[in-house]
Amino acid sequence: AGPEVYRISFVFPNNDKYDGECIRTPDGALERHGDGVHTTPNGITYTGNWKNDKMNGIGRLEHPSGAVYEGEFKDNMFHGLGTYSFPNGAKYIGNFNENKLEGEGEFIDTQGLEWSGTFHYTAAPGLKLKLEM
């Protein structure tokens, strides 16, 4: 069997707060592991999977600006498939690589028009407008 999972509510010295599951490491420290919610005093909320005390797995990160990322995380970064909603209402659905838009994706602009293409670090050469016929 793996290490015992605890449910905690913890406030960090910087007033960040974590409510969720954790395990005790061999040296006795608690680390976030499993499902949990982490909030910061300035209004950022992460709800989702944790591993090795980092955001790993599937989660949702909400920013006070209105930006929301929902999808896969790796070591606190957007990594894998996800949807990023911009504060202005535009949206990107596709692949992320270490916080950057990378690979096949779709961009829905503020007018609701869908663009698809290959993204490379937010720039998308050769975007094609997807027309709904």
TrEMBL record:
Q: Keywords for this entry?
A: Repeat
Q: Matching InterPro entries, A to Z?
A: MORN, MORN_repeat_protein
Q: Show the Pfam families listed in the entry.
A: MORN
Repeat keyword on record: yes
Origin, by domain of life? Eukaryota
> This chain belongs to which protein, by name?
MORN repeat-containing protein 2
Q: Which gene encodes it?
A: MORN2
